[in-house]
Amino acid sequence: MAELHDMGAVELRDGLAAGDMSAREVATHFLSRIAARNHLLGAFVTVTAEQALLDAGEADALHARLRREGRLPGLPPLHGIPLAFKDLTDVAGVVTTHGSAALEHKPAPADGALAAALKGAGAVSLGKTQVPEFGLTAYSENRIAPPSRNPHALSRSSGGSSGGSAAAVAAGFLPFAPGSDGGGSIRIPAAACGILGLKPGRGLVPAGESPGDAARLVVAGPLARNAADTALMLDALVPREAQPDGGYLAGVRREPQRLRIGVSLDSPWSGAFPFDTSAEALAGLDRGIALLEAAGHAVFETEVRYDNRYPDAFTAAWTAGVGSARILPQREALLTPLTRTFRKRAQQRSARKVAEAVAFLRGFTQETVAQYGQWDVILTPSLAQTARPVGWFSGAGGSWDCDPDDDYRRQCEFAPWSSMVNVCGLPAVSIPVNVPADAPGELPTGIQLIGKAGSELLLLQLAAQLEEQRGAPVLPV
């Protein structure tokens, strides 16, 4: 039998249900792997080993009872499968740091909606994963714990804001993990780490809502190593009445019809922050096109026109919540320079200005969705560059001496094709097309597919097709 950490979530689910392994055995294996290697990666901020083993024991007791009663089909859908929550999500009895040294760190009194949904589906939480302060950035570095590093190159970042979760999945610390995405925070680290990341459409996952999110940008979604595991988690997150017939996992291997796919390098950030698309990103895009065409789809170049007022409007909406965070005046100095700058500007911005920004983004959505609508799917690179060195955005060596505006500019140039998808409320998936196992010495690259409203299953079917063409990602050595 394969090592437990080499098995996907669906394979683990089937083995746990059949009694081939116990939930406690599985949890112990992954906890041991985390204990041995997390000091290199910084993927986990908190490991809740004792509680995880208790929860796994309860899962085993449930399995034994249902087996005696002949009701094993009644097991919850994620029975005994380990995962972890990014350190923006409340888990009862565990500190939620939000990646900030400026907050008092107290255990959460109850599970947040996302944790309640996945634990209620039978998953076993192993702890909390690294995030940037308040989830604001495309890199997972903060002032309370070591940075989250890329399993394929430890000098590189794992991305953000779900960077610790993506690193944990890519390194085999977890079979899959939930993330959240308000401007690319699932897709960016997925691409950086060479795994699959799905941002569902707005409103599909009830547990994805975020307080203080005036433009409704943030949604929850899965990070996984393959399309089937992604579908399994999506089945647990989406209410049954909102799922396609039979659910996502049952439909993921069905062949989609031949699609018309429009490929574009246009970005709403290019006016404010002109950027270059790296040779690696372009090569990844070419490989993605070739894989899609080999699967029978038609790919055409297209032009998308974006309003140049977008950067200011998005930034106003994206940073509004940090201005209202409760932070004692004497602790403001503990914020990172970028957060402190965003917070000051948000506090100086009137409610009317925020409302105007949100109204603009609604109009932007109508125009953009109309342009996308001439295609079944829009294709872009996931990122304009490969994973950046740790400290590249904020200051080398953890110095935090980078000018906040330069930091933000670098992030927008790094990930110029993600935030507009959140604004439009559309589903999108980042799919790896190159990982170091394919080309030793290279860093992962991925493509982003943006679908129409309600097309999550179609995007997963495309991801499954590409896996068949190139093979699913493998764990780094």
Task: Summarize the structure in words.
By secondary structure, this protein is of the alpha+beta class. The chain is built from 15 helices and 13 strands. It has helices at residues 9-18, 23-41, 49-68, 113-120, 163-170, 187-193, 227-237, 248-251, 279-294, 310-323, 337-348, 351-372, 404-414, 419-424, 456-470; strands at residues 44-47, 82-86, 124-129, 149-150, 153-157, 176-181, 196-199, 219-224, 260-263, 298-301, 377-381, 428-434, 445-450. The strands form three sheets. An eight-stranded mixed beta sheet has the order 6-8-7-12-13-11-9-10, with helices on both faces. Helix 4 (113-120) links the parallel strand 2 (82-86) and strand 3. Helix 5 (163-170) runs parallel beside helix 6. It is globular, with a radius of gyration of 21 Å. The mean pLDDT is 95.
Question: Summed up, what is this model?
Answer:
The chain is of the alpha+beta class. It is built from 15 helices and 13 strands.
How far apart the termini lie comes to 19 Å
> Would you list the SSEs in sequence order as H and E?
HHEHEHEEEHEHEEHHEHEHHHEHHEEH
Total number of β-strand segments? Answer: 13
Largest sheet: 8 strands, mixed
